[in-house]
Amino acid sequence: MSLLSIRAAGRITPPRPRGRTRGRARGEALWAFVFIAPTGLGLAVFTIWPAIQTFSFSFTKWGAFGGHTWIGMDNYATVLTDPQFGRALLNTVTFTGLVLLGIPISIVVATLLNRRGLRGVTVYRTLFYLPVVSLPAAVALVWGMLYNGDFGLINWVLGQAGIEGRSWLSDPDTVIVAIGVVAIWGSVGYNLILFLAAMQSISPEYYEAAALDGAGRVRQFFSITLPLVTPTTFFVTVITVISSLQLFDLVYLMVARTNPALDSARSVVYLFYQRGFMEGNGGYASALAFVLLAIIATFTVVQFRLQRRWVHYA
Amino acid sequence: MTHRHTGGAAVRRDRSLGATRTGAAVFAAAAILALAGCSQPGASTATDPGASTATDEVTLTYQIWDAPQEQATQQIIDAFEAENPTVSVELSVVPWAEYWTKLQTTATSGNAPDVFWMNTPTLPKYADGGVLLPLDDVVSSAGIDLADFAPATVASATYDGTLYGMPKDVDALALWYNGQLFEAGGVDLPTNDWTWDDMVAAAGQLTDPAAGVYGIPALPTDQLSYYNTIPQSGGFVISEDGTTSGYDDPRTIAGIQAWVDLIHTHHVSPTLQQMSDTDPTNMFQSGKVAMTYAGSWMIPVFTADEAFAQNVGVVRMPLLEQRGGVSNSVANVGFSGTEHTSEVEAFLVFLGSEAAADIIAEGGVLPARTAAQQIWADAYGDVIDTQVFVDTAADNTPFPRSINTPAWESVATAEFTRAWNGEISVEEAAQSVAAQMREALAAERG
Q: What is the pLDDT of residues B69-104, one digit of tens each?
């Protein structure tokens, strides 16, 4: 991705081919294409071509069996007037904000696990990583049971403390937070691995020097660890925003169609699924997909602009 | 699965073109075909046009969605093939989750299976789209009497006055009750002539919020609740020709109100939040609700546990103004683009025969043919009063539908969810559904 090229920018300057090596360079280029071909073809056939098709579909109205009628920008105009789109966008952005809270949690956990002489690191790392390899359907089922208003473990624990719980997943006030918590729980393990790798690549000399100057652990964390992992923080933030804006599976699996909190949980991709696959309006759904693509692109571009102010490349 | 066919086509074309660049292009093209999920029914005969004569072996493709019925379906195929040695039928089971997407894609590209299952709410779309073979002449020349089928199943398979499917099965709802809870509460067991008010009264006696026990869940699912009380109150969801919404009819609204009252007026049902958190089916199985509306297809589920099977019973849905309810019915339909029309028609006739209906009934599914329904009723008869379902199916009307049923069904689900939750009145919800439904129905015809 462009992200990697940005990280590498300024470090590696590929040697420019001189005149007599041009033939060899061409040979290498050919081989490069040969090696790229398997992935490239797959990408072209399964991603790029469908994306181009989807884009053209977004200007059409679908007949049930073929027969696409060109209707220009009508689908995009409908997005603006769709009563459910605004709410879905708000839900999606709220969810994304919640999931971003998982990043500081990941950094703190990584810092704790990175302490020298800590026993059982592998066990902790496995425990934190387990959610990442769990089946989303199983995760949704188990969390659904935990959140259950009448029989859920969470409400039982709250009840022991004298607090009255609620139906977390079917209460419009709590549903998006409840889903966000599951997503954070599911993402910490993955982020953790990245942050641990970043922390382990920080030279111990910085910490030794800081210790000699009298900096305590907390000061070291804020003045050394945090700035030096910012490239990873940036990477994780970009990836988290992109994937969170595409929220679908947790809503689909945890919030039934007759759940009274569906309006407060419906994400943009869920709306896409609903309009396209449940209601058979493929042209409009394609337009929704491209509106979401534009939103994701905007968020990503803004992040790349802002990164210069806070990301330190050592 | 049909991927096999497409794969073969790709290999064949690849060999005929040597150059790597064109090879890659063909590969991409073939992969795109695979993407579209194309199958090539009867490809083996189509590639050799000269050899196609009447004595040739013809292979029909037959697609269904329900894996548990695969065995019974294969038995029917075996019986058909024994009578028709020149025709063989290749059965494929496509899971429900992919069935409709795949069917629509293959129908659009002209590669749908020769024969496949169709359900009530979807049939108009396929019939209107010209995908299905009309069967009126086939049925009359084969001497099939449609009066031998439950009326709702024939109506389900008919669109715009033309028959497009051979009715296969039918379902019906009943009021299921947990006899143990009735006994413990000292309440008389439900009967087949219960009125809605009788049910509400018993539910009130059985409700004990402190113990988390309720009389009956007001299920928010159309098929399991208001689709049955609407005709019972004299209302309608959609006109028979599928053009007019009935949601603004006061009798329709009364049929919906009856359910919402169970939650907010009589307090004998769990709230919608509770039913979202815990599946009401589980509540019934764990004795947290004393009664529930459930279908004939739930018999294997509710009788799986022997101890529970001793406690459960069924009676007819309690009566509002008049008898009524909806049935879903699966029909076997033929693809209009098939290359073997006469064989498809012969197979469909066989699928609608008494012999096929008997196999369906023995397989544990309530058949559309009324004569065979007794076989089904006897199969479960010692555990459950199955006659309730047979009688209900005979009175029922087809599941409400139009060309694009899901477009307004999802609107109704969303609006009535708000009414169930007490956010808006049933009247407001129904008027809003009626208005949006009118737009959706106009768009279908436009």
A: 999 999 999 999 999 999 999 999 999 989 998 999
ipTM of predicted assembly, 2 dp:
0.81
Contact A54, A64 (CB under 8 A): no
pTM summary value: 0.83
Q: Is A17 on the interface with B (CB under 8 A)?
A: no
CATH homologous superfamily, domain B173-326+404-445 = Periplasmic binding protein-like II (3.40.190.10)
What 3-state class would DSSP assign to B263?
A: helix
CA-based nearest residue in chain A for residue B210 = A150
Query: Of B28, B221, B274, which is closest to A258 when you measure between CB atoms?
Result: B221
CA closest to A145 among chain B residues: B277
Please give the CATH architecture assigned to the domain spanning B57-168+329-380.
3-Layer(aba) Sandwich (3.40)
Report domain extents, chain A: 74-310
pLDDT tens per residue across span A140-157: 999 999 999 999 999 999
Q: Which residues have C-beta within 8 Å of that of residue B259, sequence separation ≥ 6? A: B218, B219, B225, B226, B229, B420
A44 CB within 8 Å of a chain B CB: yes
Average pLDDT over residues B395-421: 94
> How close is the nearest chain A Cα to the Cα of B108, in Å?
5
Q: Do B417 and A261 touch (CB under 8 A)?
A: no
B 365-404 → A contacts, CB under 8 A: 403-404
Closest residue to A150, CB basis, from B108, B278, B420: B278
- Rounded to whole angstroms, the Cα distance separating A226 from A199 reads 9
- Domain locations in chain B? 1-32, 57-168+329-380, 173-326+404-445
Q: Confirm whether B57-168+329-380 and B173-326+404-445 share one CATH topology.
A: yes
**Domain A74-310 is found in CATH 3.30.565.10:** no
Per-window interface: A 70-129 vs B, CB < 8 A: none
Question: Closest to B277 (Cβ–Cβ): which among A46, A63, A170?
Answer: A170
